[in-house]
Amino acid sequence: MIRRFAAATLVLALTLGLPLTLGVSHADDEKPTPAVDEDAVPLEIAEVEEPVEEPVEADPFAGTGPLSGWKRGRAAIGDHGCTVRRVRAVHDALDWLARHQEPDGSWSGSGFVEHCRSTHCRGQGNSHHDVGLTGLSLLCFLGAGEPQATGVHGDAVRRGLASLTVQQDAEGCFGPRNDKRFLYSHMIATLAMVEAYGLTGHDDYRRPAQNGMAFLIDQQVPYLAWGYRHADDGMMDTSVTAWALLLVSVAREAGLDVERSVARGGLAWIDKMIDSENGRVGYVNRGGESRRLPGTSRAFPEGKTLALTGAGVMSKLGMRGSDAKDETVKKSVALIATLPPTWNPDDGSIDLYGWHWSSLAMFQAGDKAWKPWNRALRTALLDHQGGDGWSCEKGSWVVDDPWSGVGGRVYTTSMACLALMAHARYPRFHKLKDR
């Protein structure tokens, strides 16, 4: 019934010449194809069951935070070839995350099962990276336009951010340093805090966001990039550096005190890791393959993912004034296009971490790259979202991928959700005038 009414409304709107697009205008992008998918109608139309006149809601972000101009772009989950089914998938994922939040506001890789209804959801991870999982979960809500005090899940966001605040130490680090990969959790938690500040303008988030950035900068190998450990170790890699560069870009957009020069060494590292012949970005060697956890390479071959190439492209295009027509970037984008998302649990090719980075990269690269990638991503993820009806698994994803054994179902659900909203989280940075 809903779809029949949506289709009728769509036809009527087209006949009358009414605007249908949600979100910011990307006037400089390639023109969208005139064909409309069966489900590709805006959420505002598709979810109306009766032809009622809806009141105009005030923009909860208007004039509040430095990133308030992103509100439409971040909330426009239905833009850029998205379908109503995809919008609902994101909403169901947020509902699942909200239902499995800890009482203290955090999310846990192992403890989430304590909040299941009737039967337990499968896919427990461990609790070593709960700060990072909390950050990933919050990024899903923030990416969907859920601010701290408004939106369906506003309370979940508020409590999640509060849980991170109490996990920050005097040096600005979020979470314990009991694992050599602690910097991942710190960066993801900091990104959530930075986006929360940028979107709301609340001073309660500015200080922890700024302190988190200060700690990250302190971890940088002087004038170069980032790695797992402290800068004194001199160890650097592309994965950690890509998260750091994304943080630098978003923090600067949010108005935090971060010099652009901080990014120069990291960008130089990315350039060093790109094979100029084929565009592949390596982990610690030029054009090398991605890394896996010890003992997992047979199940998840390194050659089945281009995660670091996606991370490298996003790093290069994630700064104001970047060049989307750079020849090396074009080779990297073409390479990513040869390995689109496919759901095959038997060949080790499912890599939600890689799909997250490559989705961000392909959107930044423009519609020519984004549209076919988007179709493949939609097919891979939407057909395999867990549960239906009253199942507790509804809205989540569980699958064996290279990192699911660590983060569990909270990780797989968050990463799948972030990939699905890659086009709505950030504007195309290369369209923004350099400063």
Write the layout of secondary structure elements.
Layout: H1 2-16, H2 43-46, H3 71-75, H4 84-99, H5 130-143, H6 154-165, H7 182-200, H8 203-218, H9 238-253, H10 262-273, H11 307-317, H12 327-337, H13 352-365, H14 367-382, H15 404-420, H16 422-425
Question: Could you describe the 3D structure shown?
Answer:
- Residues 1-63 and 71-75 have low confidence and may be disordered.
- By secondary structure, the chain is an all-alpha fold.
- Helices cover 46% and strands 0% of the residues.
- The chain has a single domain, classed as Glycosyltransferase (Alpha/alpha barrel).
- The longest helix is centred in the middle third of the chain and has 19 residues, at 182-200.
- It has helices at residues 2-16, 43-46, 71-75, 84-99, 130-143, 154-165, 182-200, 203-218, 238-253, 262-273, 307-317, 327-337, 352-365, 367-382, 404-420, 422-425.
CATH architecture annotation name = Alpha/alpha barrel
Question: What is the CA-CA span between the terminal residues?
Answer: 50 Å
- Any idea how many domains? 1
CATH class: Mainly Alpha
A few lines on this structure:
This protein is mainly alpha-helical and 435 residues long.
